């Protein structure tokens, strides 16, 4: 695979299995390393980069590495399998190539599952694990979405959408279709959007939309289908893993938007109990994309924990 790394003005290319991955590093390589793990499957790191989040984090004394997983976003690979082990192998390649002894994994959405499972398998490579609006109990999240939208449609007396919710509930819960339908219902009801956009968040979203990063916001529609076809761990609860990692002394931090509609109160309380109140932050007027909705609060929390 041929992987291209960008850092400052220096470009480095190396070969592993003959494929190019998009990876870019921000800041001084002697600073504390952070690897950003984006959402998906079918995600990318363009929003994290295009809103200057990676750059702003680097200005606070961190060496920030952003990349797109194999077969997703700018890391096109027609032979990608979209399994966790494939993601682990690429993370190991990144850590080796950048000569990192250890790194903090900053994970968003589906990236939280990738990061947690990687931390379980390769704890020797991890300084800390940060869950930022990250998934950790998939079925609980799907149940909450369906319960929430049903209440909305009951209130609206929308029989058509209530029938759709019932149909989704009958789908195979370990299927790409079930995941897709749940998240589409969440999106249609603005579960991922900030309730009261601030001047700063509006500016950041606009900045992203007119940037070159937005132009490369590539979504591979086949990624979820192949993930569910090839990966057996496709609907999991990582709370037991997080508990074990915490018990073994790994620092785990969690930061979530109070208005992130895909998580229930009970889910968030359970996570808070695992990581500890001092390691948990809930941001007001903030939804799923918390590093854009409330960027300063997000950066301040990361800075405080990791310094």
From TrEMBL:
Gene Ontology BP terms: proteolysis
Keyword tRNA processing: no
Protein's name according to its UniProt entry: Alpha/beta hydrolase
One Pfam family of this chain: Abhydrolase_1
Similarity section: Belongs to the peptidase S33 family.
Any GO MF annotation of the entry: peptidase activity
Keywords: Hydrolase
UniProt source species: Flavobacterium shii
Domain of life where this protein originates: Bacteria
Domain AB hydrolase-1: 33-293
PANTHER family: MONOACYLGLYCEROL LIPASE
UniProt keyword Hydrolase present: yes
């Amino acid at each position: 695979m041929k992987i291209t790394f960008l850092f400052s003005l220096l470009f480095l290319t190396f070969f592993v299995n003959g494929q190019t991955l998009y990876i870019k590093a921000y800041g001084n390589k002697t600073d504390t390393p952070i690897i950003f793990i984006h959402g998906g499957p079918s995600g990318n790191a363009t929003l994290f980069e295009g809103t200057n989040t990676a750059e702003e984090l680097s200005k606070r004394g961190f060496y920030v590495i952003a990349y797109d997983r194999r077969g997703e976003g700018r890391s096109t690979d027609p032979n990608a399998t979209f399994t966790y082990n494939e993601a682990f192998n690429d993370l190991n390649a990144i850590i080796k190539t950048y000569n990192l002894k250890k790194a903090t994994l900053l994970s968003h959405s589906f990236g939280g599952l990738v990061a947690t499972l990687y931390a379980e398998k390769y704890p020797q490579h991890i300084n800390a694990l940060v869950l930022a609006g990250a998934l950790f109990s998939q079925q609980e999240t799907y149940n909450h979405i369906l319960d929430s939208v049903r209440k909305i449609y009951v209130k609206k007396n929308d029989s058509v959408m209530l029938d759709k919710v019932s149909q989704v509930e009958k789908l195979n819960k370990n299927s790409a279709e079930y995941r897709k339908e749940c998240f589409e219902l969440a999106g249609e009801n603005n579960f991922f959007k900030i309730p009261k956009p601030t001047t700063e968040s509006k500016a950041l979203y606009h900045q992203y939309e007119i940037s070159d990063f937005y132009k490369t916001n590539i979504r591979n529609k086949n990624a979820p289908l192949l993930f569910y076809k090839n990966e057996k761990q496709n609907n999991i609860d990582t709370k037991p893993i997080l508990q074990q990692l915490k018990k073994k002394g790994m620092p785990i931090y969690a930061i979530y938007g109070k208005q992130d509609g895909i998580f229930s109160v009970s889910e968030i309380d359970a996570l808070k109990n695992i990581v500890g109140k001092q390691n948990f932050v809930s941001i007001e007027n903030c939804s799923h994309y918390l590093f854009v909705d409330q960027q300063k609060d997000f950066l301040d929390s990361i800075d405080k924990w990791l310094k």
